[in-house]
Amino acid sequence: MIRRSLLTAAAVLGLAPRAHAGGEEETASVNIAGVGLPVIAGGRVRNYVFVSLRLHLARGADATAIRNKDAFFRDALVRAAHRTPFTVADDWTRLDARAMSTSLVQSSVRIVGARQVTRVEIVAQSPRRRTGVRAS
Questions:
Q1: Which secondary-structure segment (H or E) carries 129?
Q2: In whole angstroms, what is the distance from residue 65 CA to residue 58 CA?
């Protein structure tokens, strides 16, 4: 009986998340790769930028359930990009990372619930066309 309890306790402790050197616990993240977003200037689509994102999840959030909602996050980001473009002034090769992050964190409340996604990191931006400075 005692041996069974010790084995169970050892198994549970072996599966517990490890702490970082700084003392904070490891949190899960979900990657979203290759979302094509429009660069809109003057009411016209000027370019597309393909964006890779990483959603940082709150402690205790179900990463598998959130990963299964990948299509909903993509849809929310594309809709937001068309509604209020993330275009950087005078540069058609990149988008405003802070605006994208803010928009997706706000959308995540509707998609997976409050306080599940703590922040969004823009991992990479790759423009379709490399020319990006608007001619005056």
A1: none
A2: 13
